[in-house]
Amino acid sequence: MDIRQEIKRFLTTRRARVTPQMAGLPVTAGNRRVPGLRREEVALLAGVSVDYYTRLERGNLSGASREVLDALSQALLLDDAETQHLHDLARSASPSGQVRSHRSHQADSALRPGVQWILDSMPMPAAVHDATGSYLATNLMARALYSPLFVDPAPGLARNGSGRGSARPSMPRFMFLDERSRSFFPRWEQGAEDLVAMLRLAAGSNPGDPELTALVGELSTHSREFSVMWARHDVRYVCRADKLVHHPVVGQMHLVCESTAMTSSPGLTMVVYGVEPGSPSADAMRLLASWAASEVASATQPARDTHIAS
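Now predict its structure.
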């Protein structure tokens, strides 16, 4: 990863979306040559010189203080996730423009056996995934919910982009490389944008992650839509709280989801899904549970054991 280019593109895309009106600056007559703020306007708002901001935007964040980064965040109206991403990029920068190596928490993380016990005790779908969107552990209901990934995966998609032969189901590969995702997720574009934004945030936090780098390269090569979304440099903490899926067996379901970082396994996230009581989606969830008990358990048990052991 060229960290200077990452910094440059992030700052320029954020600057382009902020208008003078949004920043509280007076608007003068005449045509503006840029869609958003000028560099000198950002420098004014951040309290730094134009030359210094220009150097920062060219990718040289090395040595920038927390105070300067926070001032830039305020000037560019960054949200919490974008502010974290800016700090992550600065932490990765070096005078040479090369990525500074970080200790990968994900590489050291391993699921305790108790995590699977917790997942299996939940009556609703629950799963654990890593920063690349690959599932490390699931309960029966999650495997039933995402049956195209676990019960009937498309050939070649349940693999690791690094070529190491992992069989972990991957939500990004399903989303962008499996045409069934378009019908499974009626709000496909919304979900795809969320997924790319979370991958971008993960890349800023650990730009040297080989699995994430390989995944981004693979998706960029095979999906134009991914490439377009990736180029926006949007970042986001979590997906939208509600999801709409059209399950191939039980039909349409409105889901709510809650995700949380796992303190016992840094770099991993647990996601739990629910439905509104008494709703048609609750009826569909009961039907899904019945189908899972009769069809999914025997079809996915060996795969689940493999995921946990890997």
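Confidence is low (pLDDT under 50) at residues 102-108, 159-166, 302-310.
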